[in-house]
Amino acid sequence: MHQILRNLDKMITNRTFTMLKPDSVEKGNIGAILEKINAAGFKIVAMKLTQMTRRDAETFYAIHKERPFFGELVEYMTRGPIVAAVLEKENAVEDFRALIGATNPEEAAEGTIRKLYATSISENAVHGSDSDENASIESAFHFSGRDTF
Ligand code: UDP
Ligand code: MG
Q1: Closest ligand 1 atom number to CA of residue 77
Q2: Which of 31, 64, 77, 101 has the lowest CB atom count within 10 Å?
Q3: Torsion, Cα of 35, 100, 78, 73 (10° steps)
Q4: What is the percent of the chain where pLDDT is above 90?
Q5: Backbone CA torsion sign across 28, 108, 73, 57
């Protein structure tokens, strides 16, 4: 119980959630992307290879359900395995968004993960939480407290 409370507390400011999306896994980019994540000072505190069901993806991306790209997004995110992970670093959410770059790889800064590995605005290699609250929600969607160190 104390472990669970400690993990919840840490997620408030020091943790973020990521997925290496199906295109990254298909292209054999897991190792290269994890290398960049480690080199940027993030510590992996939970990680697994898993595949989202249609229902998982619809729930995870529920905020986008009225958007024109929603159907395509669900197809993409369920078509193969992903790597889900929880990352720890000071200022994790903001620093990780900077590391991955803009949603559209054409607009992403040089050296960012999306600039290097994304194909398009749809197939953009990685997910990164956009707030501390969403980092907690998204981490809890994929991992229990016992999977998280
Ligand atoms: N997406 C898309 N078309 C768009 C915008 C987004 O297919 O015009 C996909 C893309 O995979 C993106 C995800 O939907 O990563 C979630 O969109 P969001 O705007 O939250 O971008 P992110 O937070 O991932 O940068
Ligand atoms: Mg987003």
Answers
A1: 11
A2: 31
A3: -170
A4: 91
A5: positive
Tokens for 103?
């949603």
Ligand 1 probe mutation, 69, 70, 100, most atoms within 8 A of CB: 69
Q: Per residue in 43-80, pLDDT tens?
A: 999 999 999 999 999 999 999 999 999 999 999 999 99
The response to whether residue 124 sits with its C-beta less than 6 Å from ligand 1 reads yes
Question: Residue 145 has which token pair?
Answer: 């407290």
Cα of 2 vs centre of ligand 1, distance in Å, is: 36
* pLDDT tens digits, 110-127: 999 999 999 999 999 999
Query: Tell me, what amino acid is at 112?
Result: T
Range of the domain at 24: 2-147
Contacts of 108 (CB under 8 A, 6+ apart): 100, 101, 102, 114, 115, 118
Is 2 marked active-site? no
Q: Which ligand is nearest to the CA of 121?
A: 1
Which CATH number does the domain housing residue 46 bear? 3.30.70.141
Does an H or E element contain 96, and which?
A: helix 92-100
Q: 144: number of CA atoms within 13 Å, CB side?
A: 2
pTM higher than 0.90 for the full model?
Answer: yes
